[in-house]
Amino acid sequence: MDPRLKHALAYLVTFAIASFPVNCFALDTESVNQRIQTLQTSGAVPGIQVTVTQKNRTIFEYTRGIRAIGHPESVQLQDQWHLGSCTKPMTAFLIGRLVDRGLLRWTTTVGEVAPHGIVLHPSVASITVEQLLSHSSGLVGPTTVEGGQLWPLLFAEPSQTAKLRSRLVAGILELPTQFSPGSKRQYSNSGYVVLGWIIEQRLRRSWEQVIRTELFRPLQMKSCGFGPAGCENAEHPTQPWSHIDGEHGLESVPPGISADNPLAVGPAGTVHCNAQDWTKFLRVLLNHTQAPRGWIKRTTYDKLLSTDGATPYTFATVAKLDRKWAQGPVYSMAGSNTMNYAIMMVAPAIDRIYTINLNSGTEAAEAAAIDIASWLTELE
Q1: Could you tell me the pTM of the whole model?
Q2: Residue 241 near residue 253 (C-beta atoms within 8 A)
Q3: For residues 208 and 265, is the Cβ–Cβ distance under 8 A?
Q4: CA dist 224 to 118, 197, 216, 270, 284, Å?
Q5: Which end of the chain has fewer CB atoms at under 10 Å, N or C?
Q6: Residue 300: CB atoms within 10 Å
């Protein structure tokens, strides 16, 4: 398995995030600011951006550090950050919009969508949209297709993305499932790649085109793009770069095909954007009325943000748990390609949205992000 695909990340980390206890003493913004600054001096994270909004107003903001090790450019308030698997809820809402238009049902099967000529394993044909959304499809991982030989070929020029995504999905769907669909939950990047492909089959446009017109544009998310942010091979970072653990410590990775997962797996996690635009999408999770009028039906919205009762994870992948610090439910998720790290938390009862973005995805960066999230829940 490619190390950049963290299959269990969203499930394990979001549970920890949502489970933060209520502390006896609240922190003020300066205390949280100092804690993050002290943490950053450890060198585990080159750049950090944190925002907390309440009632459309920013009540806490921290933007410090550098865009890339070895370069002096500082991170800026409007910088674009890689969201990793936090792309999945966006893909889920695109599916919801197709349901609203009668182009899909929650019970639509892969077999109903697959075009003539594609070979489906018998265990795959009856997988439903609902099972793909809820990570209960049992599909094999994307790195196993064609005996593992396809994965390195996916790191190709963007012009090949549509062709390679179709080849990847065909390879996933011709293999037997790992378990009977619907029998259990297992975090699946493949499931969301297939959902993106289903969108493409129904609308005859690429997932990238669809998310631009159906989500970014209506929500006015103008900074969004795909893959690593910034200019490829730029000498001076124009956006935060990815970072990896190298032979001599943390190393920056310039924008390019090696700085992210292949674009073919985009529906599962390649969106980047600035924190302000990401918050525009997260505001939809606060309340159905925050979405543009007519953008998504209330029944569809409720379905996407509901659970099946077996796990705390919704049909849009985000965790949903009641917590005292949030005075009610909190939606939370973490995303990473192991070179960047993002956390989101949405607490509707207190009308707060929390975003954390780091341009490193190492274990140390993950631990730092979780610490920051814990401190943010203590804000007055």
Answers
A1: 0.95
A2: yes
A3: no
A4: 33, 20, 7, 10, 17
A5: C
A6: 18
Residue 27 corresponds to which tokens in the numbers above? 């922190």
Q: Which two tokens stand for residue 339?
A: 């070179």
Contacts 24+ apart (CB under 8 A), 159-162: 161/206, 161/208, 161/263, 161/264, 161/266, 162/200, 162/206
Q: Are 13 and 334 in contact (CB under 8 A)?
A: yes
Question: Can you give the pLDDT of all 380 residues of the chain as single tens digits?
Answer: 344 555 444 445 555 665 665 554 578 999 999 999 999 998 889 999 999 999 999 999 999 999 999 999 999 999 999 999 999 999 999 999 999 999 999 999 999 999 988 999 999 999 999 999 999 999 999 999 999 999 999 999 889 999 999 999 999 999 999 999 999 999 999 999 999 999 999 999 999 999 999 999 999 999 999 999 998 888 899 999 999 998 888 999 999 989 999 999 999 999 999 999 999 999 999 999 999 999 999 999 999 999 988 889 999 999 999 999 999 999 999 999 999 999 999 999 999 999 999 999 999 999 999 999 999 999 98
Q: Which amino acid is at 278?
A: W
